[in-house]
Design goal:
six-stranded mixed sheet
Length: about 325
């Protein structure tokens, strides 16, 4: 049997066109063009990074303070809440601050009083504003009365805070054996509060963001405290934390009450009259106006709102 043989390869290969090579001059020019494009792209990225970030990595326009006011729309009318929000917004716009108004009932406090919502609300505000250094919790029953005062100049500036701090005083008046630190320096303060006759007053507080604030809020919101049935809910839980946990007391500064939490005259049960609002004070707090049938928050607000809403010198 014979098989077909494959065709023989020609010993004469087909002529191929000679591959042309660019001259060294063209290659250099091409490389220079690529290098110029890369440098241009890097320059554009550099310019944009400078335009949209600051030297410390904080984006331009980041507020230095965020005012946090949890709202209970089941208790207060829309008119009342609108006035409270307007009060914060006008003040915040004047100083470039941010605002946050969460609904108190959006947070699961697992059967505890709704006032506990102030704790996760602060943590929520911090997560929404990761570069803001200060968070100013202001109760929905409070009004900013002196819009010319800033949080930094009036309270948090180190020299100002040093002059305000109440050192070596009972944490819970009048006779707590645990006292504020006498050697605490302003740059170590992460939480600023006031006191009233009953103890720590939570209507107005300032917190500096950082690892300590995260630890503090997590500790305060621990289920053990929420289910313990403290008589005054989260306020008494905080008093327990401050008195028996030095890590928290070591970062707490107490300041005179009228600095940022003056009470209105309707709160006559307070024996210390120095806590009562005087014209020019920063904050007025209608503390206790939701308790009982004698007082009414909306009526009390209506007597102070026109005073706050009156024109002021915008150049001050």
């Amino acid at each position: 049997m014979h098989f077909a043989l494959p065709p023989r390869k020609s010993s004469n290969p087909p002529p191929y066109a000679r591959r042309s090579r660019p001259s060294p001059l063209l290659r250099r020019r091409g490389l220079q063009l690529v290098a110029i494009c890369l440098c241009g792209a890097l320059f554009v990225l550099f310019v944009f990074s400078k335009l949209f970030s600051s030297a410390d990595g904080v984006p331009p326009g980041t507020p230095t303070v965020v005012i946090v006011t949890p709202l209970d729309r089941k208790v207060f009318s829309s008119t009342y809440i609108d006035k409270v929000i307007s009060n914060r917004e006008i003040y915040a716009a004047r100083h470039g601050y941010g605002t946050f108004y969460p609904d108190m009932h959006d947070y699961d406090v697992q059967g505890a009083p709704s006032s506990w919502a102030r704790v996760p609300a602060m943590r929520h505000a911090m997560s929404l504003n990761p570069h803001t250094p200060y968070f100013f919790h202001l109760d929905q029953r409070a009004l900013i009365m002196n819009r010319t005062l800033t949080v930094k100049d009036h309270i948090m500036d180190p020299s100002r805070l040093e002059s305000l701090m109440l050192k070596d005083v009972p944490v819970v008046p009048p006779d707590s054996i645990i006292r504020t630190f006498s050697h605490l320096k302003p740059d170590h303060v992460d939480l600023v509060l006031t006191q009233d006759d009953d103890g720590l007053a939570l209507g107005s507080m300032i917190m500096r963001r950082g690892p300590w604030a995260d630890y503090f809020l997590d500790s305060w919101f621990d289920p053990i405290y929420r289910t313990y049935n403290f008589q005054n809910a989260e306020a008494h839980a905080l008093e327990h934390l401050v008195q028996w946990h030095p890590t928290i007391l070591a970062r707490l500064a107490l300041v005179p009450q009228r600095t940022m939490n003056a009470y209105n005259t309707d709160g006559t049960r307070h024996e210390d009259r120095s806590c009562l609002f005087v014209e020019g004070d920063f904050i007025i707090h209608l503390a206790g106006c939701t308790h009982g049938e004698v007082r009414n928050c909306e009526q009390e607000l209506s007597s102070f709102y026109p005073v706050w809403d009156s024109p002021v010198d915008t150049t001050s």
